[in-house]
Amino acid sequence: MTLKLFGKLVFLLTKERMEYRGDFLLAMLAQIISYSGDYIIIWLFLKKFDTLAGWSWPEIALLYSLGLFTYAIGASFSFVQMRDLENQVKNGTFDAILIRPVNPYLYLVCRGFNLAYLAHVLISGSVLAWALLKLNISLSGMQIVYLVLCVIGGAMIQAGFMSAIGAVSFVWVRTNFLFNLFFKFKEFISYPLPVFGTLIQVLLTFILPFAFINFYPAAFLLTKETPLLSSWTMWIVPVVGPLVYWLGYRLWMRSVNKYQGAGG
């Protein structure tokens, strides 16, 4: 799967979606309204309590936006693709992918590239830009590089976990309940990590490293305290994403190599 072929797939997918332009735009509008509601709920909560664990509304808006922005990028290459694996494996339709002369993982994620996440990117990117302006943060060249690396890393963490869940489809077949668990755990990172007890902080840092998606990048950019990590570890944060994604990919490839078909 080359970049040229991927570009052609995205072009064909875009052309296909634009055949139903009204439906596509209405779906985007619905997503924007839905996530606007989430922002409003957090804003109303902080309007009453002023701060949460020392984080103000613009700071939490930045935190939440980082999580949503990176999710949109990672999920566009992995969520629908890995969620639908359950039915593909159960019905035997996944076998058709295996006879193609391409890497099955790359073919699956590229073929299912989801343009619908553009709505997530628009609203989270807009609020992220507003938060940076509201906080009067003038990012240096190094900080911009750091932020970009953290965004890529955060997207890879989420795509890596979803790829790992998809890999389980080749063994258990039924795995959609794992996506429910994934989103339940992901709800924790909508708020600053110090809000939760030590057990949750350790879990989201060292076992399920969701805190590296948005909390640690935001905390280091805002010079906030990070109880479990020292300031010198800030450059380790972007590395976690590629590592998690690589592990998810390797698990997926290992599992598909053991796949014996719908009747296996």
UniProtKB/TrEMBL annotation:
Swiss-Prot/TrEMBL keywords: Membrane, Transmembrane, Transmembrane helix
Signal peptide: none
InterPro entries xref list: ABC-2_transporter-like (IPR010390)
Top-level taxon: Bacteria
Pfam families documented for this protein: ABC2_membrane_6
Transmembrane residue ranges: 24-46, 61-80, 115-133, 145-173, 193-216, 228-248
Keyword Transmembrane: yes
Protein name: ABC transporter permease
Organism, as annotated: Paenibacillus silvae
